[in-house]
Amino acid sequence: MTDRPARYRRWLDALLTAGLLGFAWLGIALQRGPLNLGAAALAVLIVTPLLVRRRWPLGALLVCVAASACYHLLDYPHELVIPPLVIALYTVAATGHRRRSLLVAAGTGAVAVVGTAVTGVGSPEVAFGVIGWVALAVTLGEVARSRTALLATMEDRAARAERERATESALRRAEATQREAEARRRVAEERLRIARDLHDVLAHSIAVINAQASVATHLAETATGRPPGDLATAMGVIAQTSRTAMSELRATLDVLRGHDPSATSADELAPAPGMARLDGVVQSARSAGVDLTVDTVGEQRFLAPAVDVTAYRIVQEALTNVARHARGSTARLTVEYRPASVRLTVSDDGGALNEATTGGGYGIVGMTERAHAIGGHLTASPRTRGGFEVVADLPTQEEDHQ
């Protein structure tokens, strides 16, 4: 597609050339009588380079000056060919740089002065008049060039500012997207943590309730000859375990509702789960029929809250699996405090499969995720001599509080 402004400029140059050529021919005819062919031809050579002045400004000026010199040497009317020379000089100054414009102006003025002095054609007034026109043309060209350069600079700054605004806007959108993604990730992590807590609380407590309910039912059916205290003990364990489960579940739900823990009475919320409450988990497992032995290796110490809760939940889930799948078996819990970690080992001699292999739940998956979340490691696999074993290594370095 043709550039419309360029096409308009070409049409303007053509009309300008035709007008100046007609003006020169008419002036020659009026001043010298019938149109002289030589003068007419020189006028054509002076004016027609204006057609290509935008593409070759310096070449057009050189042709114009050379033809003008011949024209003045033949003493044709001088003022008639000054406008084309002025326009050519203006174009050179407007499209070039300042040094070139000054050199061209000086050269053109020198040609006019020297030509007048050597040939004696014309008068000093004419020569100085030509110099004046040359100075005017160069000055106007410099003004036009400066204005064009200023507009180009302003357009460049505006374009650069627009690009910077677009970049800043893109950065802000990217930051907003990143913040939204981070918020979604944190929400997902919190939901996963809450799901684990709910699973740990309900799975352990309900497993114990189920075992004790089975004992109570059996005692009720065979009450003849059995001490009534056994039935009362079993029902007491069920009641206590149920209360513990409800207390922990209420605390978890308070977190979900956004309640302030300080606004809740001490009787409503149980202490935060941790290794200090391990005795309750051990007692629940023993009440469920597990012959459990607990060993502690190394110097017992306080753990960071995240490690403390994770250790408690892993032991709770592992013992729940024993009570659920290997009821009546012998189990051992070993808590080994190492310099930079704590190792938890829960093993039993039962032969039942665990839920990870049967696809019945998420206990082992949840324990593994908990261990990984604090930089630990957990393995759960059948023992070669029968039974099952869970081993968790949780890092404690730089997080212990002496």
Write the layout of secondary structure elements.
Blueprint: H1 4-32, H2 37-47, H3 57-73, H4 82-95, H5 98-119, H6 124-221, H7 228-257, H8 278-287, E1 291-297, H9 305-325, E2 330-337, E3 341-348, H10 355-358, H11 363-373, E4 377-382, E5 388-395
Parallel strand pairs: 1-2
Antiparallel strand pairs: 2-3, 3-5, 4-5
Description:
With 402 residues, the chain is α+β, with helices and mostly antiparallel strands. It has two domains: 4-160, no CATH class; 275-402, 2-Layer Sandwich (Heat Shock Protein 90). The chain has eleven helices and five strands, in the order ααααααααβαββααββ. It has a five-stranded mixed β-sheet, covered by helices on one side. Helix 1 (4-32) packs antiparallel against helix 2 (37-47). The model is unreliable at 261-269, 352-360 and 398-402 (pLDDT under 50).
In a nutshell, what does this entry contain?
The protein is an alpha+beta fold.
Give a quick account of the main beta sheet: strands, pairing sense, barrel closure: 5 strands, mixed
The poorly predicted ranges are 261-269, 352-360, 398-402
| Number of helices, where a helix is a run of at least 4 consecutive DSSP H or I residues | 11
The 3D shape can be described as rod-shaped
What's the number of structural domains? 2
Q: What is the rounded distance between the termini?
A: 82 Å
Describe this protein with a few key phrases.
single chain; 402 residues; alpha+beta; Heat Shock Protein 90; five-stranded mixed sheet; rod-shaped; disordered C terminus
